[in-house]
Structures are given as structure tokens and as C-alpha cells.
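no rush on this but wanted to send it before i forget. theres a chain ive been looking at and ive put its sequence and its fold in C-alpha cell form underneath. please have a look and point out which stretches look like helix strand or loop to you. thanks a lot i owe you, the record is right below:
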Amino acid sequence: MNGNAWLEIADLEKKWAMASVSISFALEKGGALALLGPSGCGKSTVLRMIAGLETPDSGSVILAGRDLTGLPPERRRIGMVFQEHALFPHLTVEDNIGYGLRSGGATKGESRRAAQEWLERFSLSGFAKRRIDGLSGGEKQRVALARTLAVNPDLVLFDEPLSALDAELRGRLRDELRTRQRELGYAAIYVTHDPAEAEILADRVLRMVPPQT
């Protein structure tokens, strides 16, 4: 294993009847990597294998010195931010952010205090009791990121988190994501098909090609 690697992906492969995707790379602690490529090249599949949402046919995922390859998602300490945010519409902003903490055993008071801290960090003070369906696209994106980071993951995966937003908001949040990542120091992998976005978000860009047939 690379001695400086926080995350090491070694020969991770997924095969289908007519195609396959295979990838290897390493990422240092606090680093940011972008997986860049057209739709259908396997970018999201790679993220899902790292997160434990899809089982690879071969290869390994080593994070913070632990072999995660056979572990379920909830034991990997990996956060994931999706394009559609995956927030709970029936919960308040505060309860969305605290959901992972409550699931991990935190008391209601502890989760609310933590949620308030993250709301302040993301300039959302006063939003605690708001409902998700009353938020803008940018506000939802901030809540989704705050919820992910509240549980202190070792790695955060972003699956096209900005692609559903309009151009102006996308540009603004792209810059904010990069600033937050540097400020808070978490390791991140971004999936995107936009070269300009990849260059802004990441220290390093890994270009992917369509799966082999």
C-alpha cells in the first residue's frame, strides 16, 4: 500500500454481460479527486463500490488503514452526497442534519446541538425548523452536505451534486464546495462530466473512458 494514501483503490472491477469497468488510484488525507468522463463510463458505479452500495467482482478498498471491501455501507465511515440530495421531506432541516447522529446513538439534545453548529457553518442559522420542501436548490445542497459531514466521515463521495442546478447557482456552489473541503479538511471524490468543474473541485483529475466491451 502507498504509505501516504488515506484511501487506496486497488484493481476495483465490476463486470456486466457486455462491458466492464476497472480502476486503481490512491488519495491522500484531505485530498480531493475528480472522476471525469461521459455518461455511461462507470463513474457512479465506482463511487457505489467504494461506498459499499454495489459489490465489486474483484479488487479492494482500503481507507484509513482498514480493508472495507467486505463491509456493509454503515460500517465504512463514508458519506455520500447525491445529485437529488436524498433529504427527508417530512423532517425539518435540523432533524435531517441530525438523522445520522441519532442513528448512531446520539441523544436528541446532542443531535440538535450538532445540527445548530453545522447550520452556522453553512450560513443557515435560523433554518432549523424549516421544512425541506421550502428550501432552494442551493439550500438543500448545503443541508445535504451538513448532514453528511455531521457524522465525521473518513471520506465524502459526491455523485454529480450540482448537475440539477442552474448555471449561476452551480458556479457559486462549485466554488463553495471547494472552499468547504479545504476549510474542513475532509477527503473527497467528485463525479462529474464537466472538465471545468473537475479542475475547480479537485487537486487531481482522473479521466475515465466508456466501459470496455
The radius of gyration is 17 Å. The helical segments are 43-51, 93-103, 108-121, 137-150, 167-184, 195-201. The chain has six helices and nine strands. Strands lie at 5-15, 20-28, 32-36, 58-63, 66-67, 78-82, 155-159, 188-192, 204-207.
